[in-house]
Amino acid sequence: VSESQDLQESIKPRQVEFRSLNFHNTLSWLPGRAGETRDTLYFVQYKVYGQRTWQNKEDCWGIQKHFCDLTNETSNIQEPYYGRVKAASAGVHSDWNLSCRFTPWQETMIGPPSVNVVRRKKSIILKLQAPRSPYKRKTGSSIPMTNYYDLLYQVFIINNLLDEKHSTLVYEGADKVITIEDLRPGVSYCIRAKTYVPLLSRSSAYSRRHCTVL
């Protein structure tokens, strides 16, 4: 018995947690301390906080991956959820390991805006677009994250004559079209942007860099 108990303990998944970007909500975990064997399978369940019964996630029942997409199951973004995972190997099942409570609206990370750069003689015009959620309107188009939060954009410029590390904040606000003026022709400028959620005092990662010579 103690041998199978040891195996049960050693295959139990570790660090079960939700990761979320723009409401794409994924439960992830690490293999147990025994490490990964070829026959280790994982089983995922989820529930809303306060509910008694756990639901099986059919697509993540007996899988070998270390993550499970629960975006559709956690689509009520104000509700708190739990996920849990158990492992099976050599005919032995581990106990369940439970995630922390997860509320998508409070915890999702917001992605950076997409940036389109139009250059003029002495200015750059930027067109920014908010990241999109996985949820769709009736027309089929993705609902932007601005539907769920008041978002601001932060725009940074790097003048490549100067030190690479010095990026200057040149704009913060909600406008989607921004003009940066009084720039020098012949100089290379790089632009990157972040999304900022004032209510949660949370910034996205930087967008990729867009470099241009006027």
Automatic annotation (TrEMBL):
GO CC, one annotated term: plasma membrane
Superkingdom of the source species: Eukaryota
InterPro entries: FN3_dom, FN3_sf, Ig-like_fold, Interferon/interleukin_rcp_dom, Type-II_Cytokine-TF_Rcpt
GO molecular function, one term: cytokine receptor activity
Any Pfam family: Tissue_fac
Tagged with keyword Cytoplasm: no
Source organism of this protein record: Tinamus guttatus (White-throated tinamou)
Protein name per UniProt: Interleukin-22 receptor subunit alpha-2
Domain Fibronectin type-III: 10-107
Keyword Signal tagged: yes
Assigned protein family: Belongs to the type II cytokine receptor family.
Keywords annotated in UniProt: Disulfide bond, Receptor, Signal
